[in-house]
Every structure is written in structure tokens, then in C-alpha cells.
Amino acid sequence: MSSREVILGSIRSHLAASPPAELVQSVFLPEPTPPTLRATSVVDVFKESVEAVDGHCVVVQTEEELTGVLKNFGGRIAISDAPLLNRLGIEPSRDNIFDIDVGITTAQAAIAETGTLVLDSSRERNRLVSLVPPVHIAIVDASTIFQTLGEALAFIHQDGNISPAVTFITGPSRTADIELTLAIGVHGPQELYIIVNDGPALTR
Amino acid sequence: MNQLSSETFDKNAKAALADVQLRGALRHATSLFGKRRLEAARSLNNWEELRTHARAVKDEVLLHLDRYLETFVANAEKRGAVVHWANDGTEANAIICKLARDRNARTIVKSKSMTTEETHLNDALEAAGLQVVETDLGEYIIQLAHETPSHIIAPAIHKTKRQVAELFTSTLGMPPTDDVAQLTRTARATLRDRFAAADMGVSGVNFGIAQTGTIVIVENEGNIRLTTSVPRIHVAVMGIEKVIPRLADLDLFLKLLPRSGTGQRLTTYQSFITGTKRNVDDEGPDELHIVILDNGRSRMLAHPVTRQSLACIRCGACLNACPVYQQIGGHAYGSVYPGPIGAVITPQLIGFEKTAQLPYASSLCGACREVCPVKIDIPQLLLHLRSEITSNGSKRNATERIAFKLWAKVMVSPALYNLSSLAGRLIQKVMPLAPAWTRERDLRPIEQQSFRSLWKTKLSHE
Amino acid sequence: MKVSLFVTCLVDQMWTSVGAGTVAVLRRVGCDVEFDNRQTCCGQPAFNTGYRDEARQVAQRFIRIFEESKADAIVSPSGSCTAMVHHYPELFAGDKEWEPRARAMATRTHELSAFLVRVLKIADVGASWSGKLTWHDACHGLRDLNLKNEPRTLIRNVRGVELVELENAEACCGFGGTFSVKYPEISVAILDQKIEAIERSGVHAVVSGDASCLMQIGGRLSRNRSKVRVMHLAELLASQSL
Q1: B459 → chain C, closest CA residue
Q2: Location of each CATH 3.40.50.10420 domain in chain B
Q3: Confidence bin at A32 (pLDDT 50/70/90)
Q4: Which of A175, B104, B165, B214 could form an S-S bond across to B209 if both were Cys, CB 3.0 to 4.6 Å?
Q5: ipTM of this complex > 0.90?
Q6: Residues B370-383: pLDDT tens digits?
Q7: Do C49 and B386 touch (CB under 8 A)?
């Protein structure tokens, strides 16, 4: 008998030995309403949530403003394969990702109530660029910001499909493992800059 | 690896109580954790409903665990995950060691996984000649110190920053400092190379989603993301009880887990990993292996009281609320899982032979039950285990068993009851009763006139 | 209202003024109090230590005796003993004869402050006592019986009392039944945190609804030669010292 059979068999026989249980009706929360993309009303909430978790958030209206913000960052830069980033004319460094200073990606969506970015690795090559360099810059369209976590969960599971790797990012990396004292910047980025594009969509 | 045994719990506890530094660290950590948890819970106006609901979802899953597990596995396999089943820790370790050998993986990075602590995976990997590095800061600290974790979510919480600094200086050659930011930067720099060079990453799993075959792992540091995206092989170890029905159910658990664990609204990163990458040159590991571990869990399904043990989402809130844990810390329990949840699952996972003290190491105050996000009734479980321990006929508590048999005889007979109280009144004149009490506390003497006598002579006439 | 007193073995043997105080208060608010002297114990020590057969023997006796009472309520000056009786249905779960009897008994049994405030709807029992007091929330009373406001309401109405809230009033005192002698060092370590808070509060007395907690707290206070004394709620409510 395989271990699978042994374990499943053990589960079944122990459950069968148990006295019958009363189940609470309707244990399942209703599925949240289908994801609706909101306009700028969520931008302020999002910005506040991001800053509450030690992230930086800047709101721009145009691609020119966006480029202006990005000019503030120097050093060795890596970018994801998002079409937007590739047409902005940023000079990506050829260094190994572990030697990069700044990683720039977009985000497929965001969550206002928690200040969270949603990165879907099947839509953009953003996994390591958003993780390894000490600074991560993420560009997100205001129209992709959801109000709640529940909506974001429905979004990543649209059409019953979920990509191989989805990451939710809320602020820069941190730990409180030493005396419960907060230290920002552990293995993930030490700084997170989020640029919200509140003008016409750029990341689509 | 140095580990105290749960068999010597009483000695371990006494030693912990004498450790002034430890008690200071514990007081600081547990009160801060407790304060943050309370504020986070209060920030939601439906906290109680969430708890009830989460427990209901867990109960539903546990009652049909075989089906939910099969669905999870089928969906994970459809997406390219290789699923292994391990009856016990030895088997799980053997699976992982063989995989490492077969794939020529020599360096392994690990993110924090209590399940792999339970199986002592690191010992097995090292015995097989493999290099394992813990990457969670707290786990890294205790690995350097050759210790075991003392808390479910903050493994090194028993150490002061001075102790951590001394450790880093002696093992890493770091210049002496008290600055936590500097200590953290040192750990980051030291571990960076290990991530880059690792052949295999081993992680735990917080939730396995049956609906999609997704594994969900939550963290603050980023080491889990590195562990699960840089090396070419990712091994995720998951207890059978970690499965939940749908992705949508995560909303509930992601509201409860971070708040209960650290008082955060959300931890920094949630990784949702479903199978393997779609294209060969996509980022991420080439292989995903999920090791599903039983190790005694399925046995707990047999009774509603014990079944609730499997609802645990490993938040650690019960540890912080427990007056016993607050005084003695995690190591004294001599088991991978300490505190209230440890006291109930350790005996069930490994048997009573060595763990019979643990269910008695509680004043039954119920603070744990109050803070548990999935409403596990730990005092009820402790009482259940105590009755199992006394009825297994071991020689250990023979004296106590006889004492309680006599006690029952006295309590059902007023004549014997009055006689024994008379005896007590006489004995206390010549000999102190209960030295275990009187060493540090005064003891009220038995009254010269009992209440029933007082009633008879006075109160009934008034 | 006819009340049958469940005095508890601890009070019967070691703290009779708690029993006397309970009787005095119940009479003062107009209850007719009876006491069945066949009662001994509710079975808690055996149940808590894991000896369920022995606990059941003692519980059955308790149920038989109190079933004979025609009183409207059974009242006890102990949160933990009342909670034990409330656990009787669990102790006899599945027993077709005893589970219903256990359930009926549990429904009739009340802790003193719960009885006064929730059943009799009385907040002022006409007591008086001069001094600064604090309340320790005994664990079973707090968490099993949800006693939080009831004792405080009663105490606030005692003329002459200044009630201050104890820091971490809900923290366990470390007694835990046999825990206090199986793990005395841990029990005292937990206790000392309670004692620290008590001394910091500057009160004259600590009040609680469980004699066992008061023995634990009082035992340490007196060993420390502290000026703070312990008092049971029944003693306080019976007091008419002004």
C-alpha cells in the first residue's frame, strides 16, 4: 500500500470512528461580488495604507510625470519585461540581479484597504526584479486598485485560472525577530516606492 | 542539536524560572505581542464572527479531510507539482534527502517551517552530507546558536539583542553592536550568497487551496520568496490539516492570522504558488515538490474534542497569552510546539510516554481559548488528555490514582468526610500539610469549626 | 425566593466566614436559605486532574442530593465550583439517564454575584465597608460564567468602598487546582506578577469570588508580610461596618 493510501485510509477510518458531528449551516462565506475596477476614489485610501506600512507612494497623472519621478533613481537598474518600462527608455544594467540597486516593475492590481500590490508572474517577468534589489519601484494604474483583499483574491482567480506565481506585496521587507524591535529591510527590498498612475492607463 | 526533553519538564521549568535574562525577554515579548494582537482584533468590528466562521470552515474541512486533500492534490498535480505522501517524519526526511541526491542538490536554503522542525529535517539533511541554511532571521539565529525554536512564530524571542549581537560577533566576526538594524543587515548580507548558490529551497505551507491546488505561504522578511523562486527545485512541506476549500476562504484566514500572530493587518508578502512555471525560461523553480505529512495527525480526527487540534493555524497567540509560557518560555516544554497548543498536540503526535507532564502544565485559566482565532477549546483538550493519561494504567501515577479513589469514597460518605476533616484538623497541629504549597505561601489552617457545624449550631436558627 | 446553599468543600473546611457571609447576604435581600448538610464536593479536583470516574461518582451524589431540594435556585460562593456543575452535562455526555439530570442541575445552579445581579436583579445589597479595594477576576468565573460586570456592580454599591481597577485584573493568579502543588514554582511565578500589580494599586484589600484564588493570593501576601488583605465577595457584601 502506498503512503498515499495509508494516509487517506487512516483519515477515513478515524473519521468513521468519530461520533457524528453537528455542522454549522452555510460555513462558506458568499463569493465576493465580481471584481470591479474603481477609479481614483481609492487612490487616497491606497496611498495612506502604503505609507502606514513604511512604503512611499507618489501619484502621477501623465507618462511625463512618471518619467520625471523615475529620473530620481540612479545606480544599476533592472526592469521587468512590461511594455511600458521598455518604451520609457530606461537603461537596464547587465549585472547579475543580486548586484542590482533598483528593480522596476509594474503591478497587475493593488488593494486599497491594505496598501498591497498584486504581482502576477505570468503577465510580467517581475518575480526576481521585485524581490532581490534593495529598492523596488512599482508602477500601478489607479483603475486596477481594488478596495478589498477579497476582490483581489477573486481577480487573481478570474476564469478559474490562477497563474503559477502570484505575490502580494505590502510595504518593504521587515522583521521583529530580535526583541520584537521592528527592523525594515531584511531579505526582500528595503525600500518600496509605488507610483500610482491616475491618468490614462499606462500598464495595459 | 541541544534539546531539552518534555520528560524533564518540571526541571526544565525550574531552570527557566531561574534565568533572569530569559524571564525579562519573555515578559517583554509576550506582553508586546499580546498588546498588538488585542489592538489588531479590536480594529475589526466583526472579530468574533470571523473566529466563528473560520472554525466552521476548519470543522467542515476536517470532517471531509480525505476528499479535500484528494482535490488539492489532483489540482496541484494537474499544474505540474509532484506530490509525495509521508506517513511520518522519517519518511518525509527520506523523500527530501533522496530528491536532493537524485537531483544533485548540495546546498539547501530553508524558510521557517515548524513542520520541518517537527520532522528534524535539518538533522537528516546534514547526516546525508547536505548543507542546510535557515534563512528566516529568527531561525538563522538559533541555527548559529545550535538551539531549537522557543516560539512558533518568533523562534529567537528568548534572546536579548545583546545575546544576538554576541552570537553574531563570535560566529560571523561581526564588530560588536547593539543596533538591531545593524544585526539585521549583517544577516541579510551573510545569507544573500546562500540564496544565489542554493540548488534547492525548502519551505512550509500556511494554506493549501483545494480548489486550485495552490500553496500559500506568508512572511515579512522576503526569505520565503527567495527560497521559493531562486533555487531550481522547491520542496514545500505541508501537514495534512493545512488544506482549506477555496481561494475565497483565504480572505477570512488572512484577516485572522497576521492579526493574531503579530498584530499586523497583513504580513509583507503572500506567495501563491500553483504548480510549475509554464515556460522553460520563465522565472522560478523547474520543479515543485509538495510533501504531505501525517505524522500522527490523522489519529486526532477520531474524536470531536481532539479533532479541533487540527484547526490550528499556527499563529502563536496562545503562547503569548499563557501565564505558564510567559514565565518559562518555549524550551522548557522540550517539544517542537510549546505553549498551550504544544501541550495538546505534542502528546497526541508522539504519545504519552515522554509527554505526560505537558497537559498538566496549565492552570486551566482559559486565556488561550480566548485568543485563539479558530476557537480551539484548549482547556477542554487538556482535560481530555488528562483523563486519557490517568486511565492508561501506567505505574507513574499509581499513588495519585489510589489517592483519588480514596478521595471519592470520602466525598460520597458524610461520615467519612467529617472524619477526614477531623483528621486533617488534628494532623495540621503536628505537621505542615502540603510542603509544596508552604515553601513560598502561607496556608490557611483548617477551621476549628466547619461551616456545616456552624450552620447547625447557629445559622439555621437565625 | 427559596435558595439552597452549595457552600463548597473548601469554604466548609477552610473559610467558613464566606459561607456565613453568603447566607447573610441572601437573607438580607429576602431569600429563604436552606442548607443540606449531606453535601460534600462538586467533584472538580478529580475532574481537573483527569479522574472522570471518580468525578462522576461525586457528581452523581451532588445531583441526587440537590434534586431533592425544592428551592428555586442553588447558589454558590464559588465561580469555579459553579462552573464545574455547569460542566456536568459534558461529564455525563451520552448517558441517557444522567445527562438530562446533569443539564437540569446545571441550569439551577448559580454563582452568588450572577444570582444577585442577573436573577434577582439587585445591584445594592445594603453593604458598607470603608477602604480602597480591587477586584481579581477569577478565571472560571470570568471565562466560563462570563462574570465581569456583576461583581463590579455589586462592589460599587457598597457604601464607603473606593473600587480601583487592577492592572491585568483578568490575569490568572496561578492557582489552577492541583497545578499549584504539582508545579509550585511556576504557580508562584505567575502569582508574583499578580502580587506586583496588587501592591502597585495601593489598595487595602483584594476581593474575588473564589476562595481558592484568595488562598493563593492571600498566602503570598501574608508570606510577604504585606499590609494588603484578601476578602471574598460574600464577606464584603455581608459587611455592614459603617
Answers
A1: C20
A2: 6-298
A3: very low
A4: B214
A5: yes
A6: 999 999 999 999 99
A7: yes
